[in-house]
Amino acid sequence: MTQFGRVIDLDRCTGCQACAAACSVENSCSTETPWQVVQKYEVGKYPNVRENFVPMGCMHCEDAPCEKVCHEIDVHAITTNEYGVVIFDYDKCIGCGYCEPVCPYGVPQFQNKRETLYPDKDPTPYEAIPVENQHPLHRKKSGIAQKCTSCWHKIEKAIADDKIERVGIDPEYTPSCDLVCPVDARVFGDLDDANSKVSKWIGEKKAGQMKKEYGTSPRVFYVSSGGDY
Amino acid sequence: MSINSLSSRIVASATSLICPVTSLPLLIFPLLMAILLFSTGLFSVGVVKAEDNEKVGTIEYSRAGEAIRLGEIDVGDNYSVSDKNGRFHVIHADKLLLDCSHCHGAESYKPDYLNVSKYKALTPKHRGRIEKTVCLGCHQSGGMGTPWYTGSTLEEDDADE
Which H or E run contains B45? Predict the structure, then answer.
């Protein structure tokens, strides 16, 4: 069974924020609730200092605590689909906020008022699409939880076109963040396929998961010569 | 017969064997030994009590958590994390009596936040980021809280010991 996942090579990442920008445009994110962020931190001691960058979005955990807590309080707004993508249902979500503190990666976002990506300018072409014509996962509501969907609307299209093997390869079926990386630091594909690029990167580059002590088994892996997390 | 009087008699008989000649040690030495035994007994009781208190605290947390899960303790039905009167804060702050700084310990606090009264409400601007490792302490597999995380640091702790 296809299980989508991602590998991000931190040794290649230059912190250009192209992934964050592409995600915000593709998914109509406001500046206060980005689905993809690039964390940065300094290492070393002056004068030998440098900045490290860690792009972070939803980890689409196999054992997602957000999903557990949502089911526990009988809301059932968060589900993991058969392709390993954790999806929020905006119609079922009650905006309780339980998913936010329970996520070890601080992924779920809440926006109190609907803002555009560029508040002082015209809406972007994606934002200009009438709500009824937007994909259900883009019909965000104020006070309701939202997060990265691994561009599910693109994967869904690949499934409909019977081209699931092209996800991570063809631009129209690949998440925007992975598509725009100028240094090829990101790859998206089927974790269950031993010949996929993600599986090869995990094996060859010894990619690891972040915050393994939580036992959430994230489907996003990181390559870092600095060592394991 | 009390333990102290028994120990005094034993000590007295022992001292009479050791010092059969002089009469003064016969009076003072047992008294000193009795005081020593009595104080040692008190000390050992104190140590046991401290350990018991720690265990009792852990058990009480577990019992309270279980009672909340079973609905025996009323924590309301307001499922809101941001609302101070919501279940989240009622469970953690009101029922389990966790201090605000337990979770809200971030750099956005005022420098004197540790001196702020336990019951003084923190304003939203001092709320700060929540340190997620605090949650892991109780909500891990085998922990006291509802196990949101299947991972566990308990085995690592045992290995360290």
Answer: helix B24-70
Tens digit of each residue's pLDDT (9 = 90 or more) over A147-185: 999 999 999 999 999 999 999 999 999 999 999 999 999
Distance CA A72, CA A66 (A): 10
For A203, the token pair is 């094996």
Question: Chain A within 8 Å of B70 (Cβ-Cβ)?
Answer: no
ipTM above 0.85, yes or no: no
Determine how many CB atoms are found less than 10 A away from the CB of residue A105: 19
Closest Cα in chain B to A104: B132
> What percent of chain A shows pLDDT beyond 70?
97
Asked whether the predicted pLDDT for residue B10 surpasses 50, the reply is no
B148, A100: Cβ pair inside 8 Å? Answer: no
Q: Scanning the structure block, which residue is given the tokens 């076109």?
A: A161
Q: Interior CA angle at A83 toward A12 and A223, to 5°?
A: 20
Residue contact A102–B136, C-beta within 8 A: no
Give the residue on A whose Cα is nearest the Cα of B148: A65
State the nearest Cα–Cα gap between B95 and chain A, in angstroms: 18
Which chain B residues have a beta carbon less than 8 Å from that of A98? 79, 81, 88
Statement: the pTM of the whole predicted model exceeds 0.80 = no
Pairing of strands A220-223, A4-9: parallel
Query: Quick check: A101 and B130 CB within 8 A?
Result: yes
- What token pair was written down for B54? 């720690």
Cis peptide before A108, with omega less than 30 degrees from 0? no
Q: What is the pLDDT of residues B35-93, one digit of tens each?
A: 665 554 444 444 444 455 555 566 778 888 888 888 888 888 899 888 888 999 999 98
Question: At residue A19, what is the residue type?
Answer: C
Residue B21, φ and ψ in degrees, nearest 5 = -90, -60
Please indicate whether, in this complex, the C-beta atoms of A215 and B81 are within 8 angstroms of each other.
Answer: no
Provide the shortest C-alpha distance from residue B146 to chain A (in Å). 9
